[in-house]
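Quick start: read one record
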Amino acid sequence: EVQLVESGGGLVQTGGSLRLSCAASGFTFAFDDYAIGWFRQAPGKEREGVSCINNSKGKTHYADSVKGRFTISSDKDKNTVYMQMNILHAEDTRVYYCADDAEDYFCSEYGQLSEYDDWGQGTQITVSS
């Protein structure tokens, strides 16, 4: 059984930083065979893609709204994906989720919720002004 566990959320002031972690276990294939995406969702709004990474190809993708502020990275030895979030805005207040997409080596299905196979439980980030 695949499990994705997010951590690192919390309350931060505008302009501050946080780092999210997504620890994966139970994969059928090797860690390199998955794209791992970060998504976020506000109450009453659709879930949206934030970033994506495939460890083997080093491919990453970002939403325009976070480019230059967020950085996604991965640690194959720990089966963990990170997202460093800097210069946080009030608009970044959301629940953040990670999810996996098997055999997407280039994040080509970035943002397509239906293509992702497993989801974490989510972690809340609140940015206060």
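The chain has a mean pLDDT of 95.
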